[in-house]
Amino acid sequence: MLLGFAALKLLPDRPAEAPWLSEDEKHALETKLAAEAETTRDAGYHALGDALTKPRVLVLALLYFCIVVGLYGIGFWMPQVIQTFGLAPLEIGFLTAVPYLFASIAMVLWGRHSDLTGERMWHVALPLFLAGAAFAWSAAGLPLAVIMVALTLAAVGIYAAVSTFWSLPTAILTGTVAAAGPALVNSVAISAASPARRSSA
Amino acid sequence: MIRQATGSFTAALLFLAAVVAFGGVIALRFGYAARARAKASSIVPQTGE
Fold it and tell me: Predicted ipTM?
């Protein structure tokens, strides 16, 4: 909480007020922000109330809820699924790390590919379909090695989707709403998904 | 909850599969709606222009 108040006091609101930037850097960033605001001016939201009430922001919250449920599923249920094979806690710990290793690589590569192509929609949807199929596959009561492959694919899908998801709110939100909108999306999704976390206990 | 009710992870994992796949459908719907809006705004002249 203290850091939150410190951020309010210490962090500048705009690049033009940032003392660590040169004049050229300030100008370049302000120009870039103005261009982005112009792009979202017609189809985007500007007022703070828009971030809290408009359907597109709430749809993004619903979408992120689905992603967070997958994140919780991987985080909380995967170790328990592995535990059903009778492994020691240390072995479970090492095995649990494997999907995250692949997911971390996939996040970077998938996000980079999305930036290079400028495509967002399929870069969020495809990994989620992959994760959905992988979760269904892992439910089939297969040997541990196959379950690990399925859960790794699920983790890859979920984390790849997260890497591109956060580009969606900024595509429709500008100005003050560009900060408030993602905050709403995040808080609504995580609050709604908390029963899934509790159900893992 | 789901896992406790069924005594196994099967239902829980299938629940995850359904929710995550539903997220994929929402992403597609969101993307296609955004494209349609962008296309419409490029065709219809803006007020005051």
Answer: 0.76
pLDDT, one tens digit per residue, over A73-118 is 899 889 988 988 889 999 999 999 999 999 999 999 999 999 999 8
Beta bridge partners of A45: A173
Q: What is the pTM of this model?
A: 0.78
Chain A residues touching chain B at CB-CB below 8 Å: 42-43, 56, 59-60, 62-63, 65-67, 69-70, 73, 77, 80-81, 84, 120-122, 124-126, 128-129, 131-136, 138-139, 141, 154, 157-158, 161, 168, 171-172, 195, 198-200
| Two structure tokens written together for A48 | 């703070």
* A129 vs A70: CA distance, rounded Å: 11
Give the Cα separation of A131 and A161 in Å (integer): 9
